[in-house]
Amino acid sequence: KRHSSRHYAARIPFRLATTMKPVIALVGRPNVGKSTLFNRMTKSRDAIVADYAGLTRDRHYGSGRLGNQEFIVIDTGGFEPTAETGIVKEMAKQTRQAVAESDVVIFVVDAREGLSAQDHDIATFLRRLGKPTLLVANKSEGMTQGIQLTEFYELGLGEVVPVSAAHGQGTRSMIEMALEPLHLPEIDDEPAEADDTIRLAVAGRPNVGKSTLINVWLGEERLIAFDMPGTTRDAISVPFTKGEQRYELIDTAGLRRRGKVFEAIEKFSVVKTLQAIERANVVVLLIDATQGVTDQDAHIAGFIVENGRAVVVAINKWDAVDEYQRELVKRSIEQRLAFLRFASVFTISAIKRQGLEPVWKAIGQAHASANRKMPTPKLSRVLEEAVAYQQPKRSGMHRPKLRYAHQGGMNPPVVVVHGNSLEHVTQEYKRYLEGRIREAFELTGTPLRVEMKTSQNPYAEKS
Fold this sequence. Notes:
With about 475 residues, the protein is α/β, with parallel strands linked by helices. It has 13 helices and 19 strands. Helix 12 (about 375-390) crosses helix 13. About 40% of the residues are buried.
């Protein structure tokens, strides 16, 4: 295949996404404290970003940070590598997938219960795999690193790192040791990319039609050919142009090159989806009209909003459902994706190439909205008019006083409101202000964050 790509490499090659977060998988037998360690590494239970009951069993994805370095953590179920039947076999399959997606594995054992035959089976599996592995003895609080931990050296995985997930002891140094073999570059601000290039990701469940939609786009735009990297979890950015607009399509569906024909094979990877969303400027969230909005759709949509990404919703397979089903789909979007009311929703048929042009227009509008500049004078004027029309509710003796506003960031737009007693501003009033700001600046398809900043009284400490 190498010779077939030489001609294309001289033109515009694909780009590997160089800012991918490293991925750490937690494995071990049941009840050794993997979930507690997961919650410690992601700072809280709220850090869980995906739990797909239909796809996995006891497999969770979360984001963590150590200094400037961000990473993704995968929590897996109890691992029995030799299991041959039943749910235990399925759980083992999911753990193997998590390990395959990861850059480094943290193998968790129980320092209190000691070494078990199952630990030996897991260690054998990991040694054969050859992936960077850190052996961690959990529940080590109050224990010395002497006799109690020496037996774990039998596993042949090197140094044993004692931690206490419940108490947070040793977890920081554990993360540092886990990331060390990856030789990650120093975190620095990315160089500014061309403002007119839109990084675009298509996100959705398996079999929702991502492959078909991507193939249609690539066929229309005569994409430059490339060879796929060997690892399945690499996200790639493929440059292409529509009209005069330049795009980078961030793959989530698994692109392959077969001769001179592109294939997109949907092989659902939660890690790849999360990373693609984080890298994108705009995400097209694809919904299956034949199934309506599922839990997985809502999880993906929530992650898009959490990351502040502009979004366009496309309901695919619209030609395959009758009027009754169409009404059900519309209702499920209104109810389950109510937090995406700012996004444009389109009905399409990727396979028949119907309704695709309005989606392109909405992608451009969402990107423009996410990067819109909002001058302070106009923002403050919008704020004054909003307060004059409807004041915030009084809280006890205090009524919040909103004085002026300025833009605090873009992509997504952030508006910072200054005043007094703003801690008493309700969420309902923030949503009211958001609506007024959206209308004034014609913001569509992008999250908008309104932050309140109360002025400090310089005499407060002296009084």
